[in-house]
């Protein structure tokens, strides 16, 4: 089974997760989305992305729309907690795109990823002071401090498990 792990990553969080996923599947090809690998050359496609304003980043969104009639799974890193409604909304939006392309979805995985401090600084300067992203509440501080520890070894191990399970499912076997 020809497997592709394709990813988009600005600050390497998602890249690390993609590497862990790819290393769990023998012979998997690991490619950045910028190389635009042809989905039709593969039987199983794992798409990894970073969350941008509640959605897959723009390059990934374009790529997801090109995947048609495949066995697919996806993973993402985000600043929010992985068990948040926000993370669930990202999952649902991504499933929606893949379903539209007639793909069979074989699971998803997500973990936090440290948020670029330059972004936080930009937000503070650009947004009106009463905007939630312009303020540093205790809750937000704690969330960003937790994100700064990810992806960690446990996340990478879970990403590898997710990739193995997707492959087994694609082969029609139980994980
Ligand atoms: C422009 C921008 C927008 C972001 N938007 C969100 C968001 O809507 N929700 C969220 O949870 N994290 C958001 N983040 C945080 C990133 O998704 C997170 O840090 C991710 O791990 C970055 O992955 P990367 O290192 O692979 O680029 C945003 C980051 C940037 C730079």
Structure overview:
The protein has 175 residues and is of the alpha/beta class. The protein has 2 domains: 3-113 and 151-170, Flavodoxin domain (Rossmann fold, 3-Layer(aba) Sandwich); 115-148, no CATH class. The chain is 41% helix and 21% strand. It is built from 6 helices and 6 strands, in the order βαβββαβαβααα. The chain has helices at residues 13-23, 58-64, 85-100, 117-126, 138-147, 153-170, and strands spanning 3-7, 29-32, 44-52, 55-56, 71-78, 104-112. Strands 1, 2, 3, 4, 5 and 6 form a 6-stranded mixed β-sheet that branches. Helix 3 links the parallel strand 5 and strand 6. The chain is globular and about 50 Å long. The protein starts with a strand and ends in a 5-residue tail after the last helix. Bound molecules: flavin mononucleotide.
Report mean pLDDT, rounded to a whole number. 95
| Biggest sheet descriptor | 6 strands, mixed
Structural class: alpha/beta
Question: Bound compounds, please?
Answer: flavin mononucleotide
What distance separates the N and C termini?
16 Å
User: How large a portion of the residues is in β-strands, by DSSP E?
Assistant: 15-25%
CATH topology of the largest domain: Rossmann fold
CATH class bucket of the largest domain:
Alpha Beta
Please indicate the count of domains.
2
Structure annotation, total helices: 6
Low-confidence stretches: none
**Could you tell me the radius of gyration in angstroms?**
16 Å
Number of strands: 6
Overall outline: globular
Architecture (CATH level 2) name of the largest domain: 3-Layer(aba) Sandwich
The CATH homology group name of the largest domain: Flavodoxin domain
Topology as a string of helices (H) and strands (E): EHEEEHEHEHHH
Helix content: 40-55%
